[in-house]
Amino acid sequence: MAILNSIRKRGVFLIIIIALALFSFILADVIRNGGFSTEKSLTTVATVNGENMPREAFMKKVETTQRSLGPNGTTAQAINSVWDRELRTVLQQQQYELLGLTAQPEKLEDEMRNGLATNATFQDANGNYSPGKVQEYVANVKLTNPSAYQSWLDYEESIKSITLQNTYYNMIRGGLRSTLSEGEKQYRFENDKRNLEFVFVPYTKIPDADVEVTDAEITSYVKNHASEFEVAPQVDIQYVSFSEAPSSADIADAEKDILSFLNDKEVYNKATNQTETVLGLKNTTNYAEFVNANSDAAFQDRYFFKKDLPASIADTLFATPVGAIYGPYKFGNTNNISKVIAEKTMPDSVQSKHILIRYSGSLRASDAITRSKADAKKLADSLNAAIKRAPSKFKELAIAFSDDKSNSEKGGDLGFSGPGRMVPAFDKFIFENPTGTVGVVETDFGFHVVGVEDQRNKQKAIKVATITKEVEASETTLNDVFAQASKFEVSSQKGDFAEVAKSQELALKPVNKIGALDANIPGVGNNRTIVNWAFNEETEVGDVKRFSTADGYVIAQLTRKSPKGLMSVAEASAIVSPKLRNEKKAAKIRAAISGESLQDVASSQSVTVQNATAITMAAPTLPGAGAEPAVVGAAFAKNVGETTGLINGEKGVFKVKVVAVNNAPDLETYSMYANQLNNAATPAVNTKVYQALKKASDIEDNRANMF
Predict the structure, then answer these.
(1) Distance of alpha carbon 521 from alpha carbon 204, whole angstroms
(2) What's the burial of 498, exposed, middle or buried (CB within 10 Å: 0-12/13-18/19+)?
(3) What is the pLDDT of residues 466-505, one digit of tens each?
(4) Distinct helix (H) and strand (E) counts, the chain
(5) What Rg do the C-alpha atoms of the chain give, in angstroms?
(6) In angstroms, rounded to a whole number, what is the distance separating the alpha carbons of residues 567 and 575?
(7) Secondary structure in 3-state letters for 295-306
(8) Where are the alpha helices (DSSP H) in 334-440?
(9) In this model, does residue 631 exceed pLDDT 70?
(10) Is the pLDDT of residue 144 over 50?
(11) Is residue 15 scored above 70 in pLDDT?
(12) Can you spell out the DSSP letters for 163-184?
């Protein structure tokens, strides 16, 4: 009671303390998120020059894009695709507004006319495009078909967008037209030639070990060329993995399990209160039912050629007599036993033709198909009888009656197909009947009048009933792997991660330069969870965490966390060190050179004077040195007989003498070269403008918070 009374007396004081604590917590969150709108990064994909890109609309487009990418497309791919498209749209729209560009109704009408002119829905009785038909269509779908009306509105918006985009980029291209003067410069650039003598002292003459490049020099260079060395936020991790692969005991148990399907079993039937015999693979005759009831893979009611079977088992399985068992055998991560249940000689491809008679409700039947199934069967039987009386009429009847318009004009010819390519009933008919057979086959598409035209490469084929069982890790194995992973996680949090991995003989895998929008971790696969954890503000260098993966666990440690900024010395060294080293080598070479003439310079450095003929500015390549644009440029500034000073080139120090000047003759017009410059610049306009707009814009990118 004394404690409670004491609390009551100090109630106001405690309330103030709690309020201050809550305020400090909120303030810290505000500071960490850069402002009071802490939800902004979750509701807004990006802010582009002050304009927000809403998350909800963005993610709907991501879902649509991911569906279009198919089963192998990742969320990261979809997000980046939509981002590039939406960012381009926003930046362009901002430019349209800045310039006052609008899509005039007359221009939109012209674009619509071009796009819809060949569509019969929008044509008059004479087959011409009709604005009235467009208005009639829009009014109709607005009242009767909301989905179609929305599609029309989207189409109008796309026409407007395309019109504005074309206008904008055409204006830019108009300002990029090259002049005749620029054309003349290009002509000279390509055709004026020089013959040269030169001395070349390569940087390789001085060993790298003799030229030291310090970290301070690299840091200074990076700061002075900051735009070339900017990097986005990055992290490095190292990890070990624990696989939930089946143990040797699991594999042995799986082999016993697959063998249990061979023989008959006595099974007690509660319904009949009797013990019944369930046939095994050796004695069963209902193979489809048996395989589908017991196998991880469905029964395939087809014949296989040797080439259709896995190479590792094809020879042995083909040598197995009908009724005999092959296996157990391992294929991939499965155990299998196969029984050869039939054998025959059959062609590996058949040429066939058909007349398809659809009926209302058959697969892919259009609304125009109104005949009943009975009427379709009656028509197919009638055509079949007519063809049997006069086989030459097949093509004529196919053109007149077939509902498969993809081949009816070719007499229904389907070309050659291998086993299993056609739907089962059709496939069975053409492979099990001889050339010249005509008959009616029913499928989900309707009734087919089928003709077997030709059969090629008859050879042995077998039908097999296969029990397939995936080899899976047992509960015991799964628990053991979890325990090992958890134990490593705890140990590595307390000690040195690398040493703990080494002591347990686990492969330590480093992954460097992971970006905030990356999803794929080498050796792990697509795993945004690891990336999000590594970039989380609360995760610090040295932190360790366990993650679930598709086949087990990964224990990861964050080893580096770099904010947006300039490259570190270690990162920039590979780029900067050679440049700084060559600068220092050039200074040493210059200091060691004596004499003014080419021969004196060559003698002082134990090199020879070399010749280069017909050198142009467009191809500034010197024999034995490679591309040296600065050296060739300096030579073109000299007259015949003149010599340059020492020049620091790409590969070494040069001194050049101009031996001959061979300028190309003047042309009446340089329009051809001006046009070449125009043609070279035009294809890259859209991309370069987009890149320039991005570089000049203030973009707050929150994509990393989206997935």
Answers:
(1) 39
(2) middle
(3) 999 999 999 999 999 999 999 999 999 998 999 999 999 9
(4) 24, 26
(5) 39
(6) 11
(7) CCCCCCCCCECH
(8) 373-389, 394-401, 424-432
(9) yes
(10) yes
(11) no
(12) HHHHHHHHHHHHTTPPPHHHHH
